[in-house]
Each structure stands twice: as structure tokens, then as C-alpha cells.
Specification:
Number of strands: 7
Structural class: alpha/beta
CATH architecture: Alpha-Beta Complex
Radius of gyration: 17 Å
Strand content: 15-25%
Mean pLDDT: 93
Largest sheet: 7 strands, mixed
Distance between the termini: 19 Å
Number of domains: 1
Helix content: 25-40%
Order of helices and strands: EHEHHEEHEEHEHH
């Protein structure tokens, strides 16, 4: 998406991140981006249901945009960043597990298969979408025994309850995979390099 250039005027407020995701906050902080986090309140499951049948990357992009739009409507003049991630394995989409038992069932299904992780981001100001981007990473899940899955959840549950794919790649989740093809930041939940490039194009970060 083509970006309008900044007028060069000083920014009145920091970027707004429409998310409560700790990993997304940590990515922006580590990159030196000044921002404030204001979680978006949208019915993600209803949106996913309405978009049933569409490719996961399209749904992830729509969710990212809807999150940014919802916060943008409440935060006048702010540049709002929305982001979302979806996981698909063997053509089936997976949401965050609702219980430890469901998390174990997800992991048993993932074992020995390729997990496609779709991460998307959108920048919105005053209800107008300025930029969107979606990226995909392929995570090759190794075969896993039931005993490993239980010991993994003993260590990681409930921390991974809020993680699509039931893993934190920066923690023990790395043990689930034998190979990962794709951008590290996409795996963490946001295509950060592209986001930073868009912020530069908008004059929000120095070139």
C-alpha cells in the first residue's frame, strides 16, 4: 500500500499500539519506538466466523486493521498500529487454547506437521487505513511424545494460554520445532521490519 508522506510537523503524541500483547510491546520497545499501548476491544471470533473460508493471511490482516480502526476512533489524531497472528495447520485454523486440555490437543495435532503462522499489521489514523502488510512463516513441528507435551505444559502453562500456536519462541516453545522458515519477528507476532519501514515512510521515525 502506498503511504502518504509526512508533512514534517512534529508529532503531538507517540504511536499507539492497539494490543495488549507483551511480545509486540517488547519488540517496539527494543527497537527504540516511542509508543503507548491501548488494547482494542473487538469481537475477534465473530470477525473470524464472518470471514470463514478466506485465507488465514487475509483474516489476520483484517483483524489487525479492525483493531487499529477501533482504537483510532477513540484516539483522535493518533497513528494507531494494529497487529494480529493466525496459525493454520493442514488447512485448519487454530485459535488460542481455552484450557490446558485444549492446548495439549493442539500440540498433539501439530506434532510432525508444518505450522503456518500468519502475522499482519496495519497503520490507521482517524479511521483511515494508511498501510497494511502480512507475512507468513513456516514452522516445522517435530514429532512429540505425550510425555513431552505434558512436561512442556507443566513449565509453560498458563503463560502460553494467550499464544496462538501454544508457544513462546523466546522461551521453551523453541523446543517444539526442528526448522523454521521465515522472519523471526513474524514468528514473534508482528512483521516488525516492515512496520519500521512504514513508520519511516510516514515520517514517524528518522531515515
Amino acid at each position: 500500500m502506498t503511504l502518504p508522506t509526512s508533512s514534517g510537523q512534529a508529532r503531538l503524541r507517540p504511536l499507539v499500539l492497539a494490543s495488549q500483547s507483551a511480545s509486540r510491546r517488547e519488540m517496539l520497545s527494543a527497537a527504540g519506538v516511542d509508543f503507548e499501548a491501548i488494547p482494542a476491544h473487538i469481537d475477534e471470533r465473530a470477525i473470524e466466523h464472518d470471514q470463514a473460508g478466506k485465507p488465514p493471511e487475509v483474516i489476520a490482516l483484517l483483524l489487525a486493521e479492525q483493531k487499529a480502526f477501533a482504537v483510532s476512533c477513540e484516539q483522535r489524531d493518533a497513528l494507531v498500529l494494529g497487529s494480529d497472528s493466525l496459525v493454520a495447520v493442514d488447512g485448519k485454523r487454530f485459535d488460542k487454547p481455552k484450557s490446558r486440555e485444549e492446548a495439549a490437543a493442539h500440540l498433539r495435532f501439530f506434532a510432525g506437521r508444518i505450522m503456518y503462522l500468519h502475522s499482519a499489521a496495519a497503520l490507521v489514523r482517524d479511521g483511515a487505513t494508511l498501510w497494511t502488510h502480512a507475512a507468513t512463516a513456516e514452522l516445522h513441528v517435530r514429532p512429540m511424545s505425550d510425555s513431552f507435551i505434558e512436561s512442556y505444559l507443566d513449565a509453560e502453562w498458563p503463560a502460553v494460554a494467550g499464544c496462538v500456536g501454544v508457544f513462546r519462541i523466546e522461551a521453551r516453545g523453541v523446543q517444539l520445532f526442528e526448522r523454521i522458515d521465515g522472519d523471526h519477528f513474524t514468528v514473534l507476532g508482528m512483521p516488525l521490519l516492515q512496520v519500521l519501514g512504514a513508520l519511516r515512510d510516514l515520517g514517524e521515525l528518522p531515515r
